[in-house]
Amino acid sequence: MMRTLKISMLLLAAGIVFQACDKLDAPYATVKDITSDTLHRTIVLEDYTGHTCVNCPGAAKTAHALEEAYPGEVFVIAVHAGYYARPDSSAGSLYKADFRCQTGNDWNLTPAFKIDQNPKGMINRVPYKGDMSMLPANWPGAVAEMAKKPKAAVMSMQNTYDAGTRMLTTRVDIRFLIKEAGTYNLVVCILEDSIYGAQKNNDPKVDSVPEIKKFLFMDVLRGSMNGSWGEELTSATDTTTILTKSYTFPLNATWVAKNCKVVAFVANAESYEILHAKAQKIPAVK
To answer: For the domain bounded by 2-281, which CATH number is listed?
Structure first.
Protein backbone atom coordinates (compact mmCIF):
# COMPACT_ATOMS: atom_id res chain seq x y z
CA MET A 1 0.00 0.00 0.00
CA MET A 2 2.71 2.49 0.99
CA ARG A 3 4.79 1.64 -2.09
CA THR A 4 1.84 2.17 -4.44
CA LEU A 5 0.91 5.46 -2.73
CA LYS A 6 4.49 6.74 -2.96
CA ILE A 7 4.74 5.92 -6.67
CA SER A 8 1.42 7.60 -7.43
CA MET A 9 2.35 10.77 -5.53
CA LEU A 10 5.77 11.08 -7.16
CA LEU A 11 4.50 10.57 -10.69
CA LEU A 12 1.52 12.85 -10.20
CA ALA A 13 3.95 15.52 -9.07
CA ALA A 14 5.82 15.09 -12.35
CA GLY A 15 2.61 15.17 -14.37
CA ILE A 16 2.55 11.40 -14.98
CA VAL A 17 -0.35 9.05 -14.32
CA PHE A 18 -0.21 5.26 -14.62
CA GLN A 19 -1.28 2.17 -12.72
CA ALA A 20 1.48 0.95 -10.42
CA CYS A 21 2.63 -2.65 -10.60
CA ASP A 22 2.02 -5.16 -7.83
CA LYS A 23 4.82 -5.90 -5.40
CA LEU A 24 6.42 -9.29 -5.96
CA ASP A 25 6.50 -11.84 -3.17
CA ALA A 26 9.87 -13.40 -3.99
CA PRO A 27 12.27 -13.57 -1.01
CA TYR A 28 15.70 -11.94 -0.96
CA ALA A 29 18.27 -14.16 -2.64
CA THR A 30 21.72 -14.60 -1.15
CA VAL A 31 24.55 -16.08 -3.19
CA LYS A 32 27.58 -16.64 -0.95
CA ASP A 33 28.77 -13.06 -0.42
CA ILE A 34 26.29 -11.54 -2.88
CA THR A 35 23.12 -10.17 -1.31
CA SER A 36 20.24 -9.19 -3.55
CA ASP A 37 20.04 -5.47 -4.31
CA THR A 38 16.27 -5.56 -4.89
CA LEU A 39 13.36 -7.98 -4.86
CA HIS A 40 12.27 -6.88 -8.32
CA ARG A 41 13.48 -6.91 -11.92
CA THR A 42 15.90 -4.00 -12.31
CA ILE A 43 15.31 -1.55 -15.13
CA VAL A 44 17.64 0.62 -17.20
CA LEU A 45 15.91 3.69 -18.64
CA GLU A 46 18.04 5.13 -21.44
CA ASP A 47 17.09 8.76 -22.08
CA TYR A 48 18.43 9.92 -25.47
CA THR A 49 18.79 13.65 -25.14
CA GLY A 50 20.61 16.83 -26.17
CA HIS A 51 21.10 20.36 -24.84
CA THR A 52 19.40 22.02 -27.83
CA CYS A 53 16.35 19.74 -27.67
CA VAL A 54 13.48 21.83 -26.26
CA ASN A 55 11.45 18.79 -25.18
CA CYS A 56 14.31 17.06 -23.36
CA PRO A 57 14.08 18.81 -19.95
CA GLY A 58 10.54 17.50 -19.52
CA ALA A 59 11.70 14.01 -20.50
CA ALA A 60 14.49 14.15 -17.90
CA LYS A 61 11.90 15.11 -15.29
CA THR A 62 9.81 12.07 -16.22
CA ALA A 63 12.85 9.78 -16.06
CA HIS A 64 13.90 10.99 -12.63
CA ALA A 65 10.33 10.73 -11.29
CA LEU A 66 10.37 7.06 -12.29
CA GLU A 67 13.79 6.57 -10.69
CA GLU A 68 12.39 7.99 -7.44
CA ALA A 69 9.21 5.94 -7.68
CA TYR A 70 11.21 2.70 -8.06
CA PRO A 71 14.22 3.28 -5.78
CA GLY A 72 17.03 0.82 -6.41
CA GLU A 73 15.11 -0.69 -9.32
CA VAL A 74 15.19 1.97 -12.06
CA PHE A 75 18.55 3.35 -13.24
CA VAL A 76 18.59 6.29 -15.65
CA ILE A 77 21.33 6.71 -18.25
CA ALA A 78 21.20 10.09 -20.01
CA VAL A 79 22.69 9.50 -23.47
CA HIS A 80 23.71 12.77 -25.12
CA ALA A 81 24.03 11.88 -28.79
CA GLY A 82 22.86 12.96 -32.22
CA TYR A 83 21.94 16.31 -33.76
CA TYR A 84 20.64 18.03 -30.61
CA ALA A 85 23.69 17.05 -28.56
CA ARG A 86 26.21 18.73 -30.88
CA PRO A 87 28.22 21.58 -29.32
CA ASP A 88 27.98 25.03 -30.89
CA SER A 89 31.33 26.79 -30.76
CA SER A 90 30.13 29.99 -32.43
CA ALA A 91 30.69 33.32 -30.66
CA GLY A 92 28.15 33.98 -27.92
CA SER A 93 26.71 30.47 -27.98
CA LEU A 94 25.56 29.01 -24.68
CA TYR A 95 25.89 25.48 -26.02
CA LYS A 96 29.63 24.92 -26.26
CA ALA A 97 29.66 21.92 -23.90
CA ASP A 98 30.07 18.47 -25.41
CA PHE A 99 28.46 15.68 -23.37
CA ARG A 100 28.77 13.11 -26.16
CA CYS A 101 30.94 9.99 -25.91
CA GLN A 102 31.81 7.09 -28.18
CA THR A 103 29.55 4.64 -26.35
CA GLY A 104 26.56 6.98 -26.60
CA ASN A 105 27.23 7.63 -30.28
CA ASP A 106 27.42 3.89 -30.99
CA TRP A 107 24.15 3.19 -29.19
CA ASN A 108 22.42 6.15 -30.84
CA LEU A 109 23.33 4.87 -34.32
CA THR A 110 22.23 1.27 -33.70
CA PRO A 111 19.49 0.57 -36.30
CA ALA A 112 17.51 -1.73 -34.00
CA PHE A 113 17.09 1.07 -31.45
CA LYS A 114 15.52 3.52 -33.95
CA ILE A 115 16.58 6.67 -32.13
CA ASP A 116 15.19 8.93 -34.85
CA GLN A 117 14.40 11.96 -32.68
CA ASN A 118 14.85 13.43 -29.22
CA PRO A 119 13.73 12.81 -26.62
CA LYS A 120 13.38 9.07 -26.96
CA GLY A 121 13.99 6.31 -24.47
CA MET A 122 14.32 2.58 -24.04
CA ILE A 123 13.24 0.46 -21.10
CA ASN A 124 15.66 -2.47 -20.74
CA ARG A 125 15.89 -2.36 -24.54
CA VAL A 126 12.64 -4.32 -24.77
CA PRO A 127 9.88 -3.33 -27.22
CA TYR A 128 6.77 -1.77 -25.71
CA LYS A 129 3.64 -1.54 -27.86
CA GLY A 130 5.80 -2.69 -30.77
CA ASP A 131 8.57 -0.11 -30.42
CA MET A 132 12.06 -0.61 -28.99
CA SER A 133 12.44 3.13 -28.36
CA MET A 134 9.55 5.37 -27.36
CA LEU A 135 8.48 8.87 -26.43
CA PRO A 136 8.42 9.87 -22.73
CA ALA A 137 4.63 9.47 -22.50
CA ASN A 138 5.13 5.70 -22.79
CA TRP A 139 7.98 5.37 -20.28
CA PRO A 140 5.78 4.95 -17.16
CA GLY A 141 3.72 2.18 -18.75
CA ALA A 142 6.79 0.39 -20.08
CA VAL A 143 8.50 0.58 -16.67
CA ALA A 144 5.40 -0.73 -14.89
CA GLU A 145 5.17 -3.66 -17.29
CA MET A 146 8.88 -4.47 -16.97
CA ALA A 147 8.73 -4.30 -13.17
CA LYS A 148 6.26 -7.20 -13.15
CA LYS A 149 8.85 -9.57 -14.60
CA PRO A 150 10.68 -11.91 -12.20
CA LYS A 151 14.10 -10.95 -10.94
CA ALA A 152 16.72 -12.31 -13.34
CA ALA A 153 20.02 -12.11 -11.43
CA VAL A 154 21.84 -10.89 -8.35
CA MET A 155 24.86 -8.63 -8.65
CA SER A 156 27.39 -7.03 -6.36
CA MET A 157 29.80 -4.22 -7.21
CA GLN A 158 32.93 -2.90 -5.56
CA ASN A 159 34.53 0.36 -6.71
CA THR A 160 37.95 1.53 -5.55
CA TYR A 161 39.41 4.86 -6.63
CA ASP A 162 42.88 6.37 -6.34
CA ALA A 163 42.52 10.17 -6.31
CA GLY A 164 46.23 10.61 -7.01
CA THR A 165 46.30 8.61 -10.24
CA ARG A 166 42.56 9.01 -10.96
CA MET A 167 42.41 5.28 -11.63
CA LEU A 168 39.08 3.56 -11.00
CA THR A 169 38.85 -0.18 -10.45
CA THR A 170 35.48 -1.90 -10.55
CA ARG A 171 34.73 -5.50 -9.67
CA VAL A 172 31.35 -7.03 -10.53
CA ASP A 173 30.04 -10.40 -9.31
CA ILE A 174 26.93 -11.85 -10.93
CA ARG A 175 24.81 -14.94 -10.57
CA PHE A 176 21.75 -15.58 -12.72
CA LEU A 177 18.51 -16.66 -11.09
CA ILE A 178 16.90 -17.86 -14.32
CA LYS A 179 18.19 -20.10 -17.09
CA GLU A 180 18.27 -18.41 -20.49
CA ALA A 181 19.70 -19.41 -23.86
CA GLY A 182 21.87 -17.03 -25.83
CA THR A 183 25.03 -15.03 -25.24
CA TYR A 184 25.09 -12.39 -22.49
CA ASN A 185 27.47 -9.46 -22.21
CA LEU A 186 28.39 -7.33 -19.22
CA VAL A 187 28.51 -3.58 -19.94
CA VAL A 188 30.14 -1.34 -17.31
CA CYS A 189 29.44 2.37 -17.79
CA ILE A 190 30.58 5.55 -16.05
CA LEU A 191 28.01 8.30 -15.42
CA GLU A 192 28.42 11.78 -13.96
CA ASP A 193 25.88 13.79 -11.97
CA SER A 194 25.58 17.46 -11.03
CA ILE A 195 26.85 19.08 -14.22
CA TYR A 196 25.55 22.58 -14.89
CA GLY A 197 25.16 23.95 -18.40
CA ALA A 198 22.79 25.56 -20.86
CA GLN A 199 19.66 23.72 -22.00
CA LYS A 200 16.85 24.75 -24.36
CA ASN A 201 13.37 24.27 -22.94
CA ASN A 202 9.68 24.58 -23.76
CA ASP A 203 8.19 23.06 -20.61
CA PRO A 204 6.93 25.65 -18.10
CA LYS A 205 6.80 22.91 -15.44
CA VAL A 206 10.60 22.71 -15.67
CA ASP A 207 11.35 26.44 -16.09
CA SER A 208 9.63 29.54 -17.42
CA VAL A 209 12.48 30.47 -19.77
CA PRO A 210 13.23 28.99 -23.22
CA GLU A 211 16.95 28.85 -22.46
CA ILE A 212 17.98 27.59 -19.04
CA LYS A 213 21.52 28.88 -18.48
CA LYS A 214 22.21 26.72 -15.41
CA PHE A 215 20.38 23.46 -16.07
CA LEU A 216 21.31 20.56 -13.80
CA PHE A 217 22.36 17.58 -15.92
CA MET A 218 22.20 14.22 -14.12
CA ASP A 219 23.15 10.64 -15.06
CA VAL A 220 25.29 11.83 -18.00
CA LEU A 221 26.88 8.88 -19.80
CA ARG A 222 30.64 9.50 -19.92
CA GLY A 223 31.70 6.20 -21.44
CA SER A 224 32.18 2.49 -20.89
CA MET A 225 34.97 0.72 -19.04
CA ASN A 226 34.76 -2.29 -21.36
CA GLY A 227 33.50 -1.05 -24.72
CA SER A 228 30.13 0.04 -26.06
CA TRP A 229 28.77 -3.51 -26.08
CA GLY A 230 30.75 -4.83 -23.16
CA GLU A 231 32.46 -8.18 -22.72
CA GLU A 232 30.98 -11.65 -23.09
CA LEU A 233 29.92 -12.95 -19.71
CA THR A 234 28.44 -16.31 -20.61
CA SER A 235 27.11 -18.22 -23.61
CA ALA A 236 24.15 -19.56 -21.58
CA THR A 237 23.01 -18.59 -18.12
CA ASP A 238 23.91 -20.93 -15.27
CA THR A 239 22.14 -20.48 -11.93
CA THR A 240 24.88 -22.22 -9.95
CA THR A 241 27.93 -20.16 -10.92
CA ILE A 242 29.17 -16.76 -9.73
CA LEU A 243 30.75 -14.85 -12.62
CA THR A 244 33.35 -12.20 -11.79
CA LYS A 245 34.76 -9.39 -13.92
CA SER A 246 37.18 -6.60 -12.99
CA TYR A 247 38.15 -3.46 -14.92
CA THR A 248 40.53 -0.55 -14.40
CA PHE A 249 39.86 2.78 -16.07
CA PRO A 250 41.43 6.29 -15.84
CA LEU A 251 38.88 9.03 -15.13
CA ASN A 252 39.03 12.00 -17.48
CA ALA A 253 40.62 15.05 -15.84
CA THR A 254 37.45 17.10 -16.39
CA TRP A 255 35.15 14.68 -14.56
CA VAL A 256 34.38 15.29 -10.90
CA ALA A 257 35.07 11.94 -9.25
CA LYS A 258 32.73 12.47 -6.29
CA ASN A 259 29.86 13.02 -8.75
CA CYS A 260 30.58 9.90 -10.79
CA LYS A 261 29.04 6.46 -10.49
CA VAL A 262 29.30 3.11 -12.20
CA VAL A 263 26.27 1.45 -13.78
CA ALA A 264 26.75 -2.17 -14.84
CA PHE A 265 24.19 -4.20 -16.75
CA VAL A 266 23.85 -7.62 -18.32
CA ALA A 267 22.41 -7.67 -21.85
CA ASN A 268 21.60 -10.29 -24.45
CA ALA A 269 24.18 -9.92 -27.23
CA GLU A 270 21.67 -10.66 -30.00
CA SER A 271 18.40 -9.04 -28.86
CA TYR A 272 20.06 -6.31 -26.70
CA GLU A 273 17.58 -6.99 -23.85
CA ILE A 274 18.90 -5.95 -20.46
CA LEU A 275 18.30 -8.57 -17.76
CA HIS A 276 19.83 -6.97 -14.70
CA ALA A 277 21.64 -3.81 -13.60
CA LYS A 278 23.30 -2.24 -10.59
CA ALA A 279 24.72 1.21 -9.80
CA GLN A 280 27.24 2.42 -7.26
CA LYS A 281 28.96 5.74 -6.66
CA ILE A 282 32.72 6.11 -6.93
CA PRO A 283 34.40 6.66 -3.54
CA ALA A 284 36.52 9.76 -4.18
CA VAL A 285 39.31 8.74 -1.79
CA LYS A 286 42.84 7.48 -2.28
So the answer is: 2.60.40.10
